[in-house]
Amino acid sequence: MADAPKLVNITVDGKPVAAPAGTLLIEACKTVGIEVPSFCYYPNLSLQGACRMCLVRVEKMPKLQTACTTGITEGMVVVTDSDEIRQARKSMVEMLLGNHPLDCPVCDAGGECELQDMTFSYGAAESKFIELKQHRDEQQWSPVVYFDRPRCILCYRCVRVCGEGMDVWALGVDNRGAVSTIVPNKQDHLECEECGMCIDICPVGALTSGAYRYKTRPWEMKHVGTTCTHCADGCKTTLGVRRSDTGMEIVRGDNRDKSGINGDFLCIKGRYAFDFANNEDRLTQPLIRKGGRLVPATWEEAFEFVGRRFKEVLDREGGRAIGVIGSTRTTNEENYLLQKFARVALGTNNIDHHRTADFPAFAAALHGKSGATASMRDVYNASAILLIGNDPTEEHPLLAWQIRNNVRLHNARLYVVNSRPIKLRRQAASFTQVTSETDFTEFLGGDESLASFATREGWNAVRDKLRAEQGLVIIFGSEIFGEDIQALARFAASVPGAKLLCLGDYANSRGAADMGLYPDLLPGYFPVSGAGKFHQEWKITPAAPGMNIGQMFEATKTGQLKALYVIGANPVGRLNVNPSTLKNTFVVVQDMFLTETAALADVVLPAANAYEKAGTFTNTCGDIQILKKAGEVTTAKPDFEMIVRIADAIGFDVRKLVPFGHGVHADMGQSRGAQSGEADQHAVWLEANGLEPKMSPFDPVATLDEIQRLVPGYDVSRTELLAGNDQHTSIAAMGPGTVQNPELIVPAKNNLFSSGTLGRYSRTLNSVIENKDPEPADAVPTD
Amino acid sequence: MRFSDQFEQRFTEMLTHYPTKRSVLVPTLLYAQDEVGFLSEEVIAEIASRLDLTELDVRNVISYYSMLTTKPRGKFNVQVCRNISCLLRGADELIEHCEKKLGIGHKGTTPDGLFSFEHVECIGACSWAPAVQVNYDFHENLTTETMDRVLDEYRKKVQ
């Protein structure tokens, strides 16, 4: 550990302030609660000194100084508020407003505009300028980025976040002086990653988003902090929701309060691609196949029908004739409930999901090795990172942001090993292009004397450097699986303090794996044969491994599998299953859309998405985070409720499935007689806050209790979790895992603008793809 | 694209003058403009790639300096100073005269491609105001008559 930096003592407005040497004056003031206003200064971006709002008086300096570019020095005496300073700031605001259109009543930023706030705090009510304002028409730079030039105050935040933060460098400044203007890289349009960081960081309404502009005002929305449902990085996103005809409509996504593992970062998917929820193709009522056609039915009819048909198969052939396919985008509670439903209510281990990474082998490699996994926060703070395979810029935008900014701000050393020249090589201290990531991994974990590769010399140098690193984080993609993960773990064990990170593809891919959506593994990677405490708790658990996803479709073909229950997955679209193989199988699908799989089903149940329910997600690092219900489409139900309803319809005692009511002794007002109206009020309050008491069989918190009790490594702080903070789970504490058949691992291959089924139904993503490439985008496998 | 050997020699030499590559951008643009006549898309792309900059970066710098242009100019670029000293000593008359004589306005080019005309900020010749710069040459203490002679001299040069 380096010594703590020397403290420097200064005086601000008479208050003594001590801060580490090198601290900027504006930051030092913040530590004692003194606000120095600024537009262009933004933490962790390069200094600009453009807006002149942060002027302060520093004793013995001839002129007012910009607090954002002045480092503190010993004995500095600073005044941040005086007539002189107020006058200076007032003049700055007056200049900024000189050509500002003052169209606040229609501007998207109105109500949360920094220029508005500054004008109220520091500006004048009148202006000396009598010149006519120069109007410029709004420009559309991309499907999501609009630019309103007169509103711009030239703080250059957008230019810097695009370049330094995103390493895209798509924005610049043309001309000089009064006619300076922000310009996009392709003269009249943008060619970029469409992350929307420029819009988010804009202190005024100069940059606005195609998804949100002119739709609503900030104060008309309710803001709900939840977890993104796209890639596996688990960004916290704050969704702005508003009442609509069908419930609550999501109109905006951002993370302006910088809470969560991602700070203010979001990619295009997190920021704009919530619009699948409002897609007109969304299913709004249960469908039952009658006379070869899917026709609308009531929920009661549908549940009764599914229950009856499942029961028939169970009575005739038992659970082994039913298969269950889970989702990588349903919550941990739903995944846990689903496998429990399969194992306990149906009595089968025929359960699987779309695997995108070999988490069971990861669990096997790290079994008992505590502290060997990296969290998303570790990636930002690690002193060195080894990235083998994957292209995080496309597939894991937050991970790429963490790596990039760790290198930029903390001088971390990045070692990239990839078969393609991925964009992150630009941040890399060393880039090793290999023909196969597996070979390199085997080399790393292998016996040095045996390794004989053509490129060994270069590889040796990389390995020696890696061995010398302290606090190395090793990140690997789906290129590495099975025994190779063991090899990598062996190598990690030889580097003091090294941690591993395994990359899966979907929002809850890790959760699906951790929760035991495997035919041979229970939650926490325990083998089905040794059910142990699960058996004690559940009483019945089949001991023989069930069918995996491939075997299930083989079995539908042969007629061995009579019923298939698919939740939030599209195996037909992805595995090219011949529709005729499902001809004699009773198929139930829970999904938002009529996917290729749903189109073949006998019953389709319209599902709520992750933005419309409560629960938890585990990101690919193993960080568990809470989901809060933001949007609502009243015609859809959460998968959790549907699973319970189907169990009930089969005739299964749902109390054995969801331990609701256990140990809950709450007075809901029943005993209060005349005051019993309070019970209703209480229930309303609980619901409004997303806190339903565990008195309902549809309450996922009861299942979260069970997960935390039975899945080792998930015993994280409930307080922190409910407070919206990420908690790192421990895969080391879980079961022994197993090495999987690599053929079952099918990477999602999503890029920045695709996101499986969700992406197909996102108008924003599609418009960006169409705008980029007139040719139809490469077929992307869907989940 | 290909530049002259002289350009290449200067470029290679300049790279050694500064700690960072991008520092040679402005002089490189000037030499390229002198050679090609203006900073074409092709020139911008070439210089950007040589200096590891985005084309956007290069364009931003070009737009900052009025001496750099992305549009073709006439063979002789007549720049009349209109800052305070020149203004007091008749720059306005000179500007009006030139516009009439050449038949073009600010930043215009004559149809024969011989002359471009623009008024500029101070060219540092206040002691000899009013002053005009044609390409890299200065003409001082001008009147409308001497201005005519200057223009005729240039016209003669190409005949």
Could you walk me through the main structural features you see in this protein, from its secondary elements to its overall organization?
The complex is a heterodimer of chains A (783) and B (159). With 783 residues, chain A is α/β, with parallel strands linked by helices. Among the domains of chain A are: 7-81, Ubiquitin-like (UB roll); 98-209, Alpha-Beta Plaits; 359-503 and 746-752, Dimethylsulfoxide Reductase, domain 2 (3-Layer(aba) Sandwich), CATH 3.40.228.10. A 7-stranded mixed sheet of chain A has the order 15-14-27-26-25-16-17, sandwiched between helices. The longest helix of chain A has 19 residues, at 299-317. Chain A is globular and about 90 Å long. Chain A starts with 6 loop residues before the first strand and ends in an 11-residue tail after the last helix. Chain B is built from 7 helices and 5 strands, in the order H-H-H-H-E-H-H-E-E-E-E-H. By secondary structure, chain B is α+β, with helices and mostly antiparallel strands. Chain B is elongated. Chain B has a 5-stranded mixed sheet, with helices on one face. In chain B, strand 4 and strand 5 (137-139) form a beta hairpin. At the A-B interface, strand 8 of A face helix 4 of B.
Layout: helices, strands, pairs:
The complex is a heterodimer of chains A (783) and B (159).
Chain A: E1 7-12, E2 15-20, H1 25-31, E3 55-58, E4 65-66, E5 77-79, H2 83-98, H3 114-122, E6 139-140, E7 145-147, H4 157-165, E8 171-174, E9 181-184, H5 197-201, E10 207-209, E11 222-227, E12 236-244, E13 247-254, H6 268-272, E14 287-290, E15 293-296, H7 299-317, E16 322-325, H8 332-345, E17 351-352, H9 359-366, H10 376-381, E18 384-388, H11 392-395, H12 397-410, E19 413-418, E20 430-433, H13 437-445, H14 456-467, E21 472-476, H15 483-493, E22 499-502, H16 509-514, E23 521-522, E24 526-527, H17 532-538, H18 549-558, E25 563-567, H19 571-575, E26 586-591, H20 596-599, E27 603-606, E28 615-618, E29 623-627, E30 632-633, H21 639-650, H22 677-688, H23 700-710, H24 718-722, E31 727-728, H25 756-760, H26 763-772
Parallel strand pairs in A: 1-5, 16-17, 16-25, 18-19, 18-21, 19-20, 21-22, 25-26, 26-27
Antiparallel strand pairs in A: 1-2, 3-4, 3-5, 6-7, 7-10, 8-9, 11-12, 12-13, 13-30, 14-15, 14-27, 23-24, 28-29, 29-31
Helix pairs in contact in A: 2-3, 7-21, 8-21, 8-23, 9-15, 13-15
Chain B: H1 5-15, H2 25-36, H3 41-50, H4 55-64, E1 76-81, H5 84-88, H6 91-102, E2 108-109, E3 115-120, E4 132-134, E5 137-139, H7 144-158
Parallel strand pairs in B: 1-3
Antiparallel strand pairs in B: 1-4, 2-3, 4-5
Helix pairs in contact in B: 3-4
